[in-house]
Amino acid sequence: RKHLSSIANYVLHQCSLTLHRSVDDLVADFESGLKNAALDNYSRRLVEYCSLQALQSLTSPDLGDTLHEGSLGRFTFDMMLAWETPTPSDQQITMESISKEREDRKEPLGANEAVMGDDTSLFYSDMMPLLVNEDPTVGEDAYVWFGSVFPLACDVVNARFTFEALTATTANRLHYPAYDKFLKEMDKSFNFLQSLPTPTGVEFAEDEFILHTEGTAGTQRVVRHIGTGSWPG
Q1: What does the angle CA 18 – CA 20 – CA 23 come to, to the nearest 5 degrees?
Q2: What does pTM read for this prediction?
Q3: With CB atoms counted within 10 Å of each terminal CB, which end of the chain scores lower, N or C?
């Protein structure tokens, strides 16, 4: 499709394979729900629609397997790339902007800039050798959008802070190795939390689990003190 960038076309094709439907069928369904087919950001909305349909299909018990083999991480990263550059012109503008930033970073550092400041994050700094490449990278807005449709990627409330931590050493551009490692660590943490025993006297819904426990005695009730009286918390 000429109005889509190469990465957007690729993502739509992958979505069609995931859903076992043709791209034309997906586009037809998307356009049938539009009040005006010529709405602003048509290409981006199309990417959003197809990505969401594919993600709903991928959210299954074998999610962890596809995540750890790398296919899910790569697919979802491409979704963010497609969202950020849905049209050829968007892709060209983004590439030019990134190239300019790289050229600017080649300028000699000033006397005060040559010393690493206290505010320089070391988060994922051990991955720097992996991140120095020419592969496409994701910007903040794309990451925040993706967090709203795929919570494993980030908590949408704190998405911008998470992005800042992930990209502190890579000039505010998210590289795939850091994103993939972060996804796998998040999945590992969720699996651990879900495996914790349920405290006595507490009932959880199917999708609920403990995030944090204070103290070591899981069977004792929390006591709330109000004035001179004590009440179950």
Answers
A1: 90
A2: 0.72
A3: C
